[in-house]
Structure formats: C-alpha cells, structure tokens
Design brief:
The chain is built from 8 helices and no strands. The protein is mostly helical and 166 residues long. The protein has a domain of 113 residues: Cytochrome c-like domain (Cytochrome Bc1 Complex, Chain D, domain 2, Orthogonal Bundle). α3 packs across α7 and α6 packs across α7. The protein is globular and about 55 Å long.
Length: 166
Amino acid sequence: MRRAMIASLVAAACFTGGCQSRTPGATETTVMTWVKRKILVGNKNAVNPLLSTPDNIRAGQIAFSHYCFTCHGLDGQNTGVPFAETVSPPVPSLNSPQVQKYTDGQLKSVIANGIFPSGMPASKDILSDEEIWSIVVYLRHLPPKGSLGDPAAYEDEEVTRVKSGK
C-alpha cells in the first residue's frame, strides 16, 4: 500500500512537472534514482547463473552490440551516440557508479522490463534469459570508453565529412 502511494505521488509529479525536455536537476535525479532502486526495479536478490568467463563476457558483448548499442554505444558508455546527452533523462553511461550499484538481478530486470518513464525499452520478448544474463556479465566488464569506436549506424560519408570539417 505504501509503495503504491509513493508510486502514485511520483507519477503525479512526473505528469505535472516532469514531462519537459530539459536536463534533470540534482533533486529530480536523486528522487528518480531512489524511486528506480526501491520501487521500479525489482529482482534485487536474483543471482546471475553465468560466471564471468571470457566466453560469457564475449557472448554478452555480442548480444549487447545487437540490441543495446543504439542508445549506449558499443562500449556501454555512449561513445558515438549523437542523442545520448540531449534526451531527458539522458542515456546513462553503463560504467557509472549509479548503474554499477545495481545488483545483477536488478540489471537483468532493467534489461528485460525496461524502465518507465525513461526511454529504456523492455527486451524480454526479444532476447532470451541467457542473452540478458550475458549482457549483465558484459556490463560488469565494459571496455575503456571509446575503445570500440562509434557504432556504424551513426557513420556515413556525410557525417564523416562534417566531423572532419571538410
């Protein structure tokens, strides 16, 4: 009952003042981080059945590069994603402390179910449980920012020309 009341208050706040295209302030970020951790994102105690082996990390990287790169870049840190900072809320860098504080079970829940009201979509009808768990393994072993380059989806001759200033 208490969670339903809090969720209703948060939803009301979002609908009356949160539906704006702007960078969230410190208070809004703090409140929404708490709401995500305590109300919206479940599965806190679930344990990843996949070990952090090189094969599982690679499998997670492959699954990530097929499904998640559009918003998070190939490295999980928004490299080459032109809109990552301009949407509200901004696309988080997946190696940030805020993301890495989630348990493996919570990360699986976020990937599988998405996060409302952000732009994070659900993948449970697209990816298998094993693929989702492998992505969680990959998220715990992200490469250095920029080391995998920009996603090819955001590259073409015109973009390259503009970036080079020619």
